[in-house]
């Protein structure tokens, strides 16, 4: 939702109202715009707000140390979203195989091995900061302040959390989808534009990055399987826990 700032309202009203009735006109325009947009002001919820048991019900808590178990559990839960994700992974894999067949015999085997290493190791490592940044941007745009990036090497996980920021269902979905959609689309364009072995290394990176998004897809599957509910979530990064609430 959008809220027009007060200084813009005042500037607009001064341009529309003039003469002896200017002050009355200003008050009228301000009242009109306030009544029009006042109801759409987005009142950000706080963790204290959604702890109100009359309005919200806590139905899931995920300790960060158990994230990998959660990911595997929700990747196994069948849904159209999961089928779509695995279809994309299979499709990207087929693209890489097709390109590999095309470059076979056209380049020295050492060059092919080098670009295989680039696509499977170098590019995924370079992409980690970009992937996390694409999670951060929607949080920033939605007004989150205390955003933290973390990692758990025991679980092979990197994550972005907005400490004590309550995300709406739409905000959470945008945050979760951004890296998969943007990086996949950008890589596909580069595969089309760049020549030779770069098509091969980028195609296997496209597949590798899709599999790296499994954690995001698992969280999205939680929302998909509970799509009849309005789910709000927030993280206590100090306690390393994520909470999911259903609006009653």
How would the blueprint of this fold be written?
Blueprint: H1 6-16, H2 22-37, H3 47-50, E1 56-63, H4 67-76, H5 80-103, H6 109-141, E2 147-152, E3 157-162, H7 169-193, H8 197-212, H9 214-225, E4 231-236, E5 241-247
Antiparallel strand pairs: 1-5, 2-3, 4-5
Helix pairs in contact: 1-2, 4-9, 5-8, 6-7, 6-8, 7-8, 7-9
How do you describe this structure in short?
The protein is an alpha+beta fold and 248 residues long. 61% of the residues lie in helices and 13% in strands. The protein folds into two domains: 6-40, no CATH class; 48-247, no CATH class.
Question: Span between N and C termini?
Answer: 22 Å
Instruction: Show unreliable segments.
Output: 1-26, 28-41
- The Rg value, from CA coordinates, equals 24 Å
Any idea what the shape is? Answer: elongated
Q: Write out the strand line-up for the largest beta sheet, numbering strands in chain order.
A: 1-5-4
Residue share in helix: 55-70%
Summarize the helix and strand pattern as letters: HHHEHHHEEHHHEE
Structural class: alpha+beta
- The DSSP helix count reads 9
Overall average pLDDT: 84
Let me know the number of strands.
Answer: 5
The amount of beta strand, in percent, is: 5-15%
Tally of individual domains: 2
Main beta sheet: 3 strands, antiparallel
Oligomer: single chain
Describe this structure in words.
This protein is α+β, with helices and mostly antiparallel strands and 248 residues long. The protein has two domains: 35 residues, no CATH class; 200 residues, no CATH class. The chain is 61% helix and 13% strand. It has nine helices and five strands; from the N terminus they run H-H-H-E-H-H-H-E-E-H-H-H-E-E. A three-stranded antiparallel sheet has the order 1-5-4, with no helix packed on it. The chain has a two-stranded antiparallel ribbon with strand order 2-3. Strand 4 and strand 5 form a beta hairpin. Helix 4 crosses helix 9 and helix 6 runs antiparallel to helix 7. It is elongated and about 70 Å long. The protein starts with 5 loop residues before the first helix and ends with a strand.
